[in-house]
Design brief:
single chain; 319 residues; alpha/beta; Spore Coat Polysaccharide Biosynthesis Protein SpsA, Chain A; five-stranded mixed β-sheet; three-stranded mixed β-sheet; 15% strand
Amino acid sequence: MTETSDIDLVYLWVDGNDPQWRAKRDATIGKPSNTSLDCKGRFVDNDELKYSLRSIDRYAPWIRRIFIVTDGQKPAWLNTDNPRVQIVDHTQIMPPECLPCFNSAVIEHHLHLIPGLAERFIYANDDMLLYRPAMPETFFAADGFPIVRMKGLNLKDRYIALKKIVLRRPKGTYRRTVIKSADIVEKAFHVRYNGLPHHNIDAYLKSTNAHFREFFKSDIEPTLTHHGRQIGDIQRTIYAFAGLATHRAHLEYAYKRTSLYFGLHGIHRHGLERLTELLEKYRPTFLCLNDTEWTVESDREIIRQFLETQFPEKSQFEK
C-alpha cells in the first residue's frame, strides 16, 4: 500500500486483574460498583485482545500498524518485537491533568496524538472482533473519508424503542453521552443525528479528530478532568457526528448482518446457543462481545473457550 493508503488500528486495553493498577484505580475513583459507569466488566481482562488480534490477522492482514494504548501495562503474551505492533502509554498522549485516567471517553479525545499514527485509522475496544474478511473500503469510502455506522432498527427494534418512549423509561448512561454529542453538533451545524453508533470497530481521520477537538474545545475540556466515567461525558461520537455534518464522513446504517453486538450476560441466561444461532443466521463482519454489569465469571469462562474454538491459531502478534 502507498503511504496515503496506509490504515492503522488503535486499541484501548487494560488489565484490571493487575493489583497495582487496581490499587491506583481505587485510590483515584474508588472501587468498582455494579453500575454501567464503573462495573468490573469495564476493566477486567479476559484475553479478548488476543483473540481480536487473531481475527485481525486472519481477516484484515492489510492493516499497517497496531497501536495498543495502555496505562503502564503490557499483555504478557504480546510479541513486542513485531515491528507492526506498538504499546502507547497514556503519558505519551495525555497531559498530567488527565492522569491517572480510567475513563475511555477521555482517552479517546487524545488518540490523534499517537506518535506515527496514520491519517486514516480504525479504532476498537478489545472486545471487538472481525468475523469475516474486511477490506479498506469496509471502513473508508472511495474519496478517503470514513464510513460512520449507526445502528439500523428492524421492526422489532423499533417497537421496543417506541415502547420505552411511551413508558418513559430513563435513558442509559451511554445513550446520554451520544445525545449530548448530537446536541453540540446540532448547535454548531444545524443538523441532527439521532442514531446510536453500532458499538463496534469505527473509522476516523486523524486530521478531522484534531480539527474538531480544537473546534469543540470548550465543550470537551470539562470531560478531560473526569478520571472515571461520569454521566454527561463527551465521548468520541462527537467526531463522527461532526464529520457527517461537514461532509467529511459517510453515513451507513448497520444491521446484524454487518455488525452484531452480544452482551456476555446473555450466556448464563441462554448458554452459547443464542450467540451461535445469531452468528449462523447473520454471519456479521463485526462482532462485539461486550462485558456488562450483569456478567458473571462463568460467562467469561464460556466466552473465552468459545473464542479459542473460533480463533485457535496464534497470530503473528503473540510470543
